Amino acid sequence: MLGPVLLAASRSDAIRRIVSAAPVTRPVVDRFIAGEVLEESMAAVRNLDQQGLEITLDHLGEDITDRSEALRTRDAYLALAKALKTEGLGVRAEMSVKLSAFGQALPGGHDIALANVTPVVEAAAEAGTTVTLDMEDHTTIDSTLAILAELRRRFPQTGAVVQSYLFRTEDDCRALAGEGSRVRLVKGAYKEPASVAYQDKREVDLAYVRCMKILMAGKGYPMIGSHDPRMVAIAQELGRRNGRTLDEYEFQMLYGIREAEQQRLVAEGHRMRVYIPYGTDWYGYFMRRLAERPANLTFFLRSLATRG
To answer: In what residue span(s) does the Proline dehydrogenase domain sit (predicted)?
Structure first.
């Protein structure tokens, strides 16, 4: 029952204030968030690049309710694209965006988000990199996939995320597994009703494997977003069965989590991409990481003890 409680807490302003003010929070956040400003995130990018790791960067923020905030998100990503271009890191680092941070939830939000994210995708292409559209709660999926289709007309390398806990995701995988399509598969980290999503962890895991099979058998480029050793091993086996070389799919893990495993996969010749979040609006991201699995709470607290 802890997971749903943490997900509910992720949207509570009162709990946000308590957690943000707690002295115990900051050291944990610092380990899993690569700073609050662009310069700090770029230092993390350079460090990981030197270790042979690839990167995707997420400027934290979501559920924007004001047009000016959406424009600030756009401008933050334009600054990020410029920094990647200046440092020649476009080949190694891409960007991940949440369309709710670009105004998707506003009245007329679909068109607003598309208008705001388009210059970011253009700037990414100019920097030699690309953008992946993060998936949020199930009410936004149709809009997000429609924006993806629009962006891919000019920028076919634009990526999408699918979440295995949703009943619809296997069909979405089939639709997205075409030539050139980049798809990140994750289990899902939002509180979803039983009418649209599996509630049992075993069912979510089984769905994840079914989705991997679809993506690995397709003509697109699968991005396996998981820290689960079983899923990593299954992905490797599916890659072999489908005749994929090690550069025809990749693994993705979160910044600050399972770093030794990230290095092991790189040493084996796999593409390993680290998801780097940065920015001041870290609370929602942080709480969802705790809620994904109740064991994560122990993990984060153990990490704090180790750091201390």
So the answer is: 43-299
